[in-house]
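FORM 7B - TANDEM STRUCTURE REPORT

SECTION 1: FIRST PROTEIN
SEQUENCE AND TOKENS:
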Amino acid sequence: MTLFPPETAPWGFLLLAALLTWLLLALLLPVLRRRLLDQPTARSSHRRPTPRGGGAVVVVVGSVLAPLCGWGPASWLPFLCLPLALVGLVDDLRDLPPGIRYGVQLLTAVALLLLAPSAPIPWWLMPLGLVAVTAVINFVNFMDGLDGLVASCMIVLVAAAALAPGPAAGGALAPMVGALAGFLLWNWSPAKVFMGDVGSTFLGALFAGLVLLQPDPMRASGLLMVAFPLLGDALTCVLRRLAAGERVFQAHRLHLYQRLHQAGWSHARVSLLYAGTTAVLALSWLTAEPWVLAVLVGSAAVVGVGLDRQVAVPFNLALACSRAPRLP
């Protein structure tokens, strides 16, 4: 006897995960307000104290329900990412040294690279693979700075991986989509709770694992391109900050999404732009030829450059403001 009939199991588990996540967050919010209240600073995009750490519920619900919904590579993938969630939770409670955080990221990256069911990566490519996986983890974490941004984009990315053919496909990912949807109800602008490192680093590793689970390099690179709104913004900002002599892991407000918000765009408007673009790219990846996706990514890059030049607060101005001395 199963909880849901086989033909409706993914939908049933998606709805169950969404409901459980919403209810658990409703119960946990008073605790998070006491223990994990995020106070606004000069580098924050929010203006009122808001609890963080809500991503822990997404991690638990999405991971526990995954094996009940289908057994395969996608069902055990969340468990490989759990160490990052634990470290992220501790880091949300009290700041951990960067070495510990990156060490756990490296161990998670090794597990993902070694246990992916695709052809083993040659040993001489392992260093590049480790850099790529940890970069994705950190890039997703960097982008978690506006209400609903990462959660909405990750709903699209995980759903796309679930619908695509290959080892990552199937109902096991439905609970994670549902958990993210239930969280988004609390995280959409104005957010009642933030994801925190416990959720963002876990989701970054989960997405990296979904890329590695694709059946061939073409599909893997395509799924990576679907995440262009998130990863492209993060990569461009990192490169510009490195060129300016900035410390990459220092908190800042220099991403395009942050500078669009500084220019007057609302949290919801920016998040809808990123999630909507991700959805268009995902639909292309699932239904069209690879060259169509490449054209769309190129078009998104052109739009991004236009927004950067014509709409957002200029990078150099935002950088100068971040370097200005703070009044006591």
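SECTION 2: SECOND PROTEIN
SEQUENCE AND TOKENS:
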Amino acid sequence: LSGPLCDAVLETTGSERVLQSLVQSNLLIVPLDRVREWHRYHHMFQDLLQAELRLREPRAVEGLHRRAAKWFESNGQPELAIHHAQAAGDVPRVARLFERIGRITYSTGRSDTVFAWLDWLEEQGGLASHPAASSLGALAAALDGDALRSARLLDLIADQSHPLARLV
């Protein structure tokens, strides 16, 4: 958590003061850095708060995640943006972010993360409408030795007029 993130997600101001007050009161929130910009709270407390939110305002959850995804994307944290975009069901944002960071994520040895994002996009039906994500996934699958997955992902773009379809 950070003040600016909370302000953006909640569409309010003054979150930093609230966080500092909670830290000083020792209410399950601790600072993560010396300047006390970032904070965290206990995961069990997180589960409790999320359950309460789903119970009281279930329609608000998607919007909160959309705003968090937008904030993280705008603030140079694309993986956290993907996490929140997935929670919001925002397929276009996940695909766009995947296209931007999928290759570097794979090249740093995090193929499981790449394939988890691909699986989510495929489950949501998002790969057929995002040929760059499909081709990137096909390349990652080929490099990983999964010829069947690679062929399946390439098939998604074979009939489209996207420039990457010419590579098939």
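SECTION 3: OBSERVATIONS ON SECOND PROTEIN
The chain is about 65% helix and 5% strand.
The longest strand covers residues 29-31.

SECTION 4: SIGNATURE
Preparer initials: ____
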